[in-house]
Amino acid sequence: MTIADVYGGTMSGASILVIDDEPGMRNFLTKILGTRVKRVEQAASAKEASQKLDEAHFDLVVLDNIMPGGTGLDWVTEQRRKGFYADAILITAYADLDTAITALRAGVSDFVLKPFGANQILGAVSRALDRKYLRRDNALLRRELYADTGRGQLLGKSEALATVRAMIEKLAGLTTPVLFTGESGTGKELAARHLHSLSDRRDNPFVAVNCAAIAPDRIATELFGVMESDERLKPGLLLLADGGTLFLDEVAQMPDQLQAALLRVLEDRKVRPVGAEREIPLNLRFLFATNADLQKAVAEGRFRADLFHRMNVMQIKMPPLKDRSEDIVELAAMFMTHFSVSMGMPPLPLDDSTLLKLRRYDWPGNVRELKNLIERSVILGAFPEEFAGNGGFSGAEAIENLDLVVQRHIMHLLDMCDGNRAEAARRLGVSRKTIDRKLAAWSM
Questions:
Q1: pLDDT in tens, 251-279
Q2: Do residues 165 and 319 lie in contact, with contact meaning Cβ atoms separated by under 8 Å?
Q3: For residue 45, what are the CA distances in angstroms to 26, 54, 95, 164, 259?
Q4: Mean pLDDT, rounded, of the chain
Q5: Residues 136 and 205: beta-carbon distance below 8 Å
Q6: Could you give the CA distance from residue 320 to residue 182 in angstroms, rounded to a whole number?
């Protein structure tokens, strides 16, 4: 097993700043780390290092403790006061108790004692990154435990959803902001997650934020982070999502102060935590969603026009479920399996009668309403009366039987045409007699 095999996992996507006044040591560390991480940059002095932190984000700083003009520990302590979102590894020839205590207070992750070999520095870097990413993942997982996050697949073969999928695939490889619009319950967050999963950011966090669910007095610290009383930075969601995708839902309900702050973040690609001196560079893909008419909100002065134009570079409109009704059967079957397994309860039979009723219903609450109906029915052990059925087919046969598929499609189209058989026949491209014959065979 090679060194690359041992230290490849967490290091490959990391950015590291090496600080040392000796060119030989800088070049040695760069050579060791350069082939194993995403980016390594050098700084020959504390001043140059501070400038580089203002220009780009680094996951980890590796620095010598003895440098002209001050110690590495002094520099780390100063950077913490300004706002420092990197872990630090200190290279030192002496690790006495006082130095160790000072380093811990400054937030140094690890020591490497001189002289050292390649394996020692690689081990320290790997451990520091492991801890950093573990803290990030734990913070995001704790948040998701209490959030109603939109998980699942973007299911469906309808033409309306195929158009959405094609646009998502076209935009996945870009960094362009995308605004998802559409009625509540149409799957805007699912579509955003799908876009993230197709992008080169897929291995980094996807962080969803409901702008309407965060109290106005907490929203700045929640998103941007805060310098706490011990001069340590508590990162906000923008920093926790760094390298990945930030999805802001219900953007029409953003407070005015957040609109102004977000506009600056979008323009500068930097975030300043509350109480910090430094603006920390960001590497983020921004996605947005709303079920409101943002252009109307802009015209009425409820939403900033400059922010709207920043967000609305590309727009994807999610179709309501009634416009993709051919997906209802597949979605109902998927929800039935999911809830029966997750709750340990028997699934209800999806017979041809129930599937026909599900297909003909208008679904004003869209996919979310269908999902809630299936969950409630599994819990109660029966569908509500308006969806209950006693058909002759159930399961895969009811879903895939060609005659039943045709029946559901024709009946849905007739509903859309208010029962006008001639108009339904015209839309289907068949004769009126064909419709009459089908309905007679189905005794309708």
A1: 999 888 889 999 999 999 999 998 888 89
A2: no
A3: 11, 15, 22, 51, 38
A4: 86
A5: yes
A6: 7
Is residue 4's pLDDT more than 90? no
Residue 270, helix vs strand vs coil: strand
Chain position carrying tokens 């394996």: 119
- Find the length of the chain: 444
Strands 110-113 and 87-92: parallel
Span 193-213, pLDDT tens digits:
999 999 999 989 999 999 888
Nearest in space to 283 (alpha carbons), one of 271, 272, 269, 273: 269
- Rounded-to-10 torsion of CA 172, 173, 178, 183: 0
What is 232-258 written as a DSSP string? Answer: -EE--HHHHTTTSEEEEE-GGG--HHH
User: Which residues are paired to 252 by β-bridges?
Assistant: none
Going edge to edge, which strands form the sheet with 15-19? 39-43, 15-19, 60-64, 87-92, 110-113
Long-range contacts of 300-303 (CB under 8 A, 24+ apart): 302/252, 303/252, 303/254, 303/259
pLDDT tens profile 366-395: 999 999 999 999 999 999 988 887 765 555
